[in-house]
Write a structure and sequence with these properties.
Layout lengths: L5 H5 L6 E2 L13 H14 L3 E4 L11 H15 L5 E5 L3 H14 L3 E4 L9 H14 L3 E6 L7 H8 L4 E6 L4 H14 L6 E4 L8 H6 L4 E4 L6 H13 L2 H19 L5 H12 L16 H26 L1
Parallel strand pairs: 1-2, 1-8, 2-3, 3-4, 4-5, 5-6, 6-7, 7-8
Helix pairs in contact: 2-3, 3-4, 4-5, 6-7, 9-10, 10-12
Length: about 325
């Protein structure tokens, strides 16, 4: 854990947010050495923060003991260079247990994922996240998706809840997000509540989210092609519409279309991509399954096309 508040550190990031996969060895157990190598690669490539044991990191598949070990490994490997945020989910009691394990492991904050299975009303959701935020000293980002979708009024209440610093949106309703941003800005004009684009391939909607003032985003691509993800981040941030458009058209859109061909590909395709890059992080745990051989070939071609674009635009600008 670092001494600076997480909200302040995330509010001034200059790179993609890194969601590493969790590595498993041939015996199926967590492989901390491979995980550390994966985290180090991301930090060296320019990650602004490490979000360990979240969706891409198969939080759902980890025992509490494994979770603590993986978060601790991320904290040790980053050594304060960037903040480490850990996932926390399930029902309130279990989410609090995971939050306390993350705190013990030295994490800087929590990504609070939706409660398990149940569909709660707004009062229940607010009670859940209030209890989770109060359970530790860790600053908490609430993840909106699936069965945890909030009204603007609920987000205003979350924004005034001690310990809650932001909202990650994985739902994708821009009209709702605009109303949320507007409501919080109106009710808390002096607040510094953070917003994150948390869709599975957030770069595809990056320009649209920037239009409503949401510039922070999670990058699954950064886990397996950090050079492409960082080039896109810089192009979008600097207003380089030509490179942004080229990567959206010829890398990100095909990647999203491939991801839609298999259930669970938002995780398993990313893990396959890490293996293609030369680091054996193992396969996904059940109930997820591996991409087909044909789809891995498609992924290989898409990554090669993305890197060819970086080379093309780099040569043109150097020449």
């Amino acid at each position: 854990m670092t001494s600076a508040p997480l909200a302040a550190r995330l509010g001034r990031v200059a790179g993609p947010l890194f969601f590493p996969v969790t590595a498993y060895g041939p015996d199926g157990d967590v492989d901390l050495d491979a995980f550390r190598a994966h985290v180090r690669t991301g930090i060296d490539a320019g990650a602004a923060a490490v979000f360990a044991c979240c969706g891409t990191g198969e939080f759902h598949a980890l025992t509490p003991q494994e979770f603590r070990r993986v978060v601790a490994a991320a904290v040790e490997e980053t050594a304060g260079e960037v903040p480490v945020v850990a996932g926390a989910g399930y029902g309130t009691a279990l989410a609090i247990q995971y939050a306390k394990l993350a705190e013990e492991a030295g994490a800087d904050g929590l990504l609070a994922m939706p409660p398990y299975l149940v569909v709660a009303d707004q009062e229940g959701l607010l009670g859940h996240y209030t209890a989770l935020a109060a359970a530790t000293s860790l600053e908490t980002i609430v993840y909106q998706r699936d069965n945890a979708v909030f009204t603007p009024a609920t987000v205003v209440a979350l924004a005034t809840t001690p310990g809650v610093i932001g909202l990650k949106d994985g739902y994708g309703d821009l009209d709702l997000m605009q109303r949320i941003v507007s409501a919080v800005r109106t009710e808390l004009p002096d607040g510094d509540f953070l917003y994150f684009n948390g869709l599975p391939t957030a770069e595809l909607t990056g320009p649209a989210y920037r239009g409503i003032g949401v510039s922070l985003y999670s990058s699954a691509v950064f886990a397996f092609a950090p050079d492409i993800a960082l080039a896109f981040y810089r192009a979008l941030d600097s207003g380089d519409d030509e490179l942004t458009g080229a990567l959206l058209d010829h890398f990100y859109r095909p990647l999203v279309e491939l991801r839609a061909k298999g259930r669970g590909y938002a995780v398993s395709l990313v893990k396959a991509g890490v293996r293609l890059g030369g680091l054996d992080v193992g396969e996904v745990r059940t109930p997820l399954t591996e991409p087909s051989a044909a789809h891995i070939e498609e992924l290989t071609a898409i990554v090669a096309r993305g890197r060819a674009l970086l080379e093309k635009y780099g040569q043109e600008r150097r020449g």
